[in-house]
């Protein structure tokens, strides 16, 4: 059987965590979409051949790709936004919020493109603050999905950084093939070695008393630029986790294709026998 070549497009692309994960998995990113200009410049520098969109709300019918990925805004969902605690209790924000509510645009574009697979990332609190909406919308446009919480520590990083990851695919796949799409992390990790040398860091480097000289070397740039860099990295998907998810999709898709091919062969055999 021929090795399938996949294509990728990313929404809410940030500085390209999913795009880099796709590249590490041998999958080209045909297009990305990011609202903030300085992040688009970073994307253009590292992915010059990817077509760039700037606003998910005006993006309509982008070219077909096999996989769409995106971490839609978590500000109205995440526990890090302490100012919204009372609103959470009243159910007034979460995925209904102005920023996290951009999920509706994500769902719209999935419906327009109809990719084979979709990767969704958000705060684990999405499970209590709007996940039913995500599941409902995916069902309405003909997709089934599986989900899992993953931590940075599972990929040899010295911090927790837990996130929920969803992989969706057309419902017809589940009617035929019943294996899970998420593979054990160690099975994927055994196939490659992280390009990052992990250096243990005391947690006090990242507490409220940390200063920029202790977080990174003084390179002459203003602290304002450092704040933006740290924020960009903090919001980005860890590329190795992205690669893991793409590898899960490739293995799942290969197994599913084998089932379909074998089923067709069996049908042909039955016709001949009859």
Task: Summarize the structure in short.
The protein is α/β, with parallel strands linked by helices and 274 residues long.
Defining key terms:
globular; Rossmann fold; 7 strands; 274 residues; transferase; 14% strand; alpha/beta; seven-stranded mixed β-sheet; EC 2.1.1.37
Secondary structure blueprint with pairings:
Layout: E1 8-11, H1 17-24, E2 29-33, H2 37-46, E3 51-53, E4 67-70, H3 85-89, H4 103-113, E5 117-122, H5 131-140, E6 143-150, E7 163-170, H6 171-176, H7 185-189, H8 212-215, H9 223-235, H10 239-273
Parallel strand pairs: 1-2, 1-4, 2-3, 4-5
Antiparallel strand pairs: 5-7, 6-7
Helix pairs in contact: 1-10
Task: Kindly describe this structure.
This protein has 274 residues and is an alpha/beta fold. The protein has a single domain (8-273), classed as 3-Layer(aba) Sandwich (Rossmann fold), CATH 3.40.50. Helices cover 39% and strands 14% of the residues. It is built from ten helices and seven strands. It has helices at residues 17-24, 37-46, 85-89, 103-113, 131-140, 171-176, 185-189, 212-215, 223-235, 239-273; strands at residues 8-11, 29-33, 51-53, 67-70, 117-122, 143-150, 163-170. It has a seven-stranded mixed beta sheet with strand order 3-2-1-4-5-7-6, with helices on both faces. Helix 1 packs across helix 10. The two termini are 27 Å apart. The relative contact order is 0.15.
């Amino acid at each position: 059987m021929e090795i399938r070549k996949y294509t990728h497009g990313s929404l809410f692309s940030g500085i390209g965590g999913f795009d880099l994960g796709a590249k590490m998995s041998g999958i080209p990113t045909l297009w990305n979409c990011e609202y903030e200009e300085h992040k688009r410049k970073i994307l253009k520098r590292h992915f010059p051949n990817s077509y760039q969109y700037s606003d998910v709300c005006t993006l309509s019918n982008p070219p077909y790709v096999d996989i769409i990925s995106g971490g839609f805004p978590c500000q109205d969902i995440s526990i890090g936004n302490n100012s919204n605690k009372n609103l959470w209790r009243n159910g007034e924000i979460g995925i209904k919020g102005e920023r996290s509510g951009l999920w509706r645009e994500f769902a719209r574009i999935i419906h327009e493109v109809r990719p084979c697979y979709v990767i969704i990332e958000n705060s684990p609190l999405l499970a209590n603050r709007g996940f039913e909406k995500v599941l409902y919308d995916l069902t309405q446009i003909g997709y089934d999905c599986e989900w899992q919480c993953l931590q940075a520590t599972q990929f040899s990083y010295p911090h927790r950084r837990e996130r929920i990851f969803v992989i969706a695919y057309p419902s017809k796949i589940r009617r035929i093939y019943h294996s899970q799409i998420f593979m054990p992390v160690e099975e994927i990790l055994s196939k490659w070695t992280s390009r990052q040398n992990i250096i243990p860091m005391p947690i006090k480097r990242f507490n409220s008393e940390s200063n920029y000289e202790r977080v990174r070397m003084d390179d002459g740039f203003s602290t304002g630029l450092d704040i933006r860099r740290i924020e960009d990295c903090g919001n980005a998907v860890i590329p190795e986790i992205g690669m893991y998810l793409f590898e899960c999709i490739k293995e799942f898709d290969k197994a599913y294709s084998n089932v379909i091919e074998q089923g067709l062969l069996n049908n042909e055999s039955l016709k001949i026998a009859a």
